[in-house]
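User: My collaborator and I are trying to settle a disagreement about how two of our proteins should look. Neither of us wants to argue from intuition anymore, so we agreed to look at predicted structures for both before our next call. Could you fold the first one, then the second, and keep them clearly separated?

Assistant: That sounds like a sensible way to settle it. I'll keep them separate. The first protein:
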Amino acid sequence: MAGILIIAHAPLASALRDCAAHVYCGEPKRLEAIDVTPDAEPTAVLAEARRCLASVIEDNGALVLTDIFGATPANIAARLAEPGRIKVLAGVNLPMLVRAICYRSEKLDQLATKALAGGSQGVLQIGSTTVQNQIANHPDKYAAEGRHHHQ
């Protein structure tokens, strides 16, 4: 079961961890969060991240989730990447985290792919009807039935 570490701008990392605890009716094991404050010293955060990673990593590795690519939390997270052992994904959101927790027993490459898919598929415009939502998310399927999505 891969460990998961979230490194994000404060208070996003701990808020995502708390949301996961709500979704799973208790905090999932091997899940850590580091909130990076505006005055944080990057070398100190990196040292904390390495300590957290050591406590969550498993046989199939660890997934590090971060918020904005190119920002301080992501730059710190990028320094943790190790091919085949630690994968780093940017753009973390709750759907990505839930998917990562759900599939954490998969091999690390598969886990990263599923987490990325969960994150991107979780971002969509919600329509006023179920059919509208389904058409927006699966246009080819519903076009075959003669239904069309108008924006």
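The second protein, kept apart from the first:
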Amino acid sequence: MNRPPALRVPLLDLKPQYEAIAPRVREVLEAVCASQQFILGPQVKTLEARIAAYAQCRHGIGVSSGTDALLLALMALGIGAGDAVITSPYTFFATAGTIARAGARPLFCDIEPDTFNVSAEAVSRLLERDCERRDGELIHRPTGLRVKALMPVHLYGQLCDMTALMDLARRFGLKVIEDAAQAIGARDAEGRHAGSFGDVGCFSFFPTKNLGAFGDAGMCVAQDAALAEHMEVLRVHGGKPKYHHAFIGGNFRIDELQAAVLNIKLDYLEDWSAKRALNARYYDQAFERKSLEAVRTPVARPGHHHIYNQYIVRVRDRDALREHLSANGVGTEIYYPIPLHLQRCFAYLGHAPGDFPQSERAAQETLALPIYPELTEQQLQYVVDTLAAFYSAGAGAASARA
């Protein structure tokens, strides 16, 4: 008969966070309900200004999700049929999915093996080797498409090498859309925030994020006033004034109720992210003491501010380890088990296994451990001990020797 786990550590538990702010949240929700102003009201305007300032940008445009933030950015920059956008194959589906929905083609570049972010060297190789100027446009020779933009993904809460990527974008005349869905508050060594480098920064406020709404919500940030206004018009079906449509847009508005919740939560964001970083440091030191060759902890760029939206370890015998952790009450997740170039819906791109080896290896070897702010030291140590027990008991030994 199996014994129940000595302790349960879910991958994420949002209840403690809510309990700490519940009185403030209930008060503001009651106020919105009393006002009966649910669409693009004062809470939205306040949130847009606050997020823009926090991200070191001039303008914020609240939208219905992080996915719609990416799609809106592509539409506002005029990217569509006949165009191509460079991005990573190792990311959430929405990154390449929105490129395809806009009518463009994703051009994948492999990732760095340590940070899991898109490799600037791989992007440079694609631009130098596979692209050429024709009649003032950058053409991808294998497809004949116009290369219009770069969409780097700040994965797991850490910035890409934006200095190198922005240099490439300027050299080759590319627009830059930052997929910062997992990285609000992440900063480089100079203190520059995620979302502030490119033409548009895109955030997700999905409930599991460091700054999470009570449902779907997102934000675009930008420095250019004209671009920001264009996105504001596109998010309401392209109508300005009302019922007059110079453009075909969509219904991408953020809800007033979600904005109200996020305005409360934004007050706590820096503290929550700091606690995640403390938990990450605890893991790092605890795993180092265990001297587990089969486990590689996350690599943070020197001087960068990592917000640890996820804590990702690279491990041997990943799937068996995950089963062991689950049986012992530890929640985990695999981000992402199938790279985008191998997804069936992208078969038309013509990729095969082996095309992006670092992305494929990461998909096979990485595992997310619990990292949310309210974890106790006892829970953190239990995760470490439970994981270490898997290897010390000899499980995965054959893989570990490989």
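Some points you might bring to the call about the second protein. The two ends are 34 Å apart (CA to CA). The domain at 269-401 is CATH 3.90.1150.10 (Aspartate Aminotransferase, domain 1).
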